Amino acid sequence: MLRGIGEDLCLCRIPSVSEILITGYASEENLKEAERLQVAYHIDKPFNIQDFLEVIKRDLKRIYSNMQEFLMSRC
Length: 75
Hints:
Blueprint lengths: L4 H8 L7 E4 L4 H9 L4 E4 L4 H25 L2
């Protein structure tokens, strides 16, 4: 289970910040808990650094797109 600071951070929800759960204990229970907390990305250890960087890149594209939409809506 996701307990402690990580869970508290997920629950406070800062819209522009995506949570990335990296766990060494891959289980169906942890995956369901991550979904309940609306964690953006779930990565099991061990993982390939390229896969991790791809998650970061994908999220940066999401942030950029959201910023563009926001700026266009203000015109």
